[in-house]
Amino acid sequence: MAEGTHFSLQPERYQFTWGPADPLIRVRSGDLVSAQTIDAGCLDCQGRPLSANQRQDCGNTQLLESNPLVGPIWVEDSEPGDMLRIEIKRIEITRDFAWSRHFPRFGCLTCESALGELLLNEPVPDLSYHWQLDRSAGTGTLRLLRSQLQEVQIPLHPFLGSIGVAPRYGRVEPALVPGEFGGNMDCAETCEGAVLYLPVWVRGAYLSFGDVHAAQGDGEICGVALETTANVTLRIGLLKHRLADWPRVENASHLMVIGSARPLIDAVRIAHLDLLKWLVSDYGFDKWEALQLLSQVGIMRVGNVVDPNYSVVAKFPKAYLP
Predict the structure, then answer these.
(1) Fewer CB within a 10 Å sphere, N or C end of the chain?
(2) Are residues 167 and 80 in the same domain?
(3) Euclidean distance between CA atoms 184 and 322, whole angstroms
(4) 221, 305 in Cβ contact below 8 A?
(5) Up-side HSE of residue 134: CA atoms within 13 Å toward CB?
(6) What's the pTM value of the predicted model, to 2 decimals?
(7) How many other CB atoms are there within 10 angstroms of residue 217's CB atom?
(8) 131 and 24 assigned to the same domain
(9) Co-location of 257 and 118 in the same domain
(10) 158-173: per-residue pLDDT in tens?
């Protein structure tokens, strides 16, 4: 891909929706984009909340102010039926802490209805957790107040919890939603060094990104990861006439497809079906032989089981490519 212009963005306003809006910037294939992200709770790298003027305003409707996004970015010459090729060049955490939380009626272990009366058991309590980040060591530490251990330390794995384009069929979705457009997939595979392929559904693509997680377990079962801020750099490429139905990811070892839907089994089906299509169309596999091989060597990760759609990553080892 040809070297392009490097844009360093300083957004005056962050978005809470996936969909067409006034572009923050216009780029061409090969351009680099860098920006500072804001965490999922609208806190900046100093822990300060966004002002009202920094938040997307849709006038007569109230937005769900979660997972603020940098964007949208207009990609010149992109049309429906094309594909964006996005190299995740850099995700550099920019503060020494992350927060997490669990609260009533959110997460996979509780009722997700606003009507708490649907359950006889008590709701999950509203508790917040402050994780100390050691960026040089690549670790996160949590002080434990109610457990036998005094503290626990885990390795960091920074990734983009949310990255996507405008959805198909003229839809506008809250930033919390994943789908065929990418979005809030919460998949740990969208990390530094990976290449993400996103289908273009709307002219200009309207790429947005944010919601960096310092770490997260599969499924994000409590509903909240280690939420933090980061400097993110992406190289944005355009592949003309390369239609895909769902987001695809590639790294040094695997081809991957991310499917998002409810129920969870539909996300499993979507991800594996599109992965099979990829193996057949680009790598010369027979469909049924590809299914047999994928059944024996494939890997499956669950990105999230808490969002309006669940996300599943189907992975095929490159060692078995021709």
Answers:
(1) C
(2) yes
(3) 33
(4) yes
(5) 10
(6) 0.93
(7) 12
(8) no
(9) no
(10) 999 999 999 999 999 9
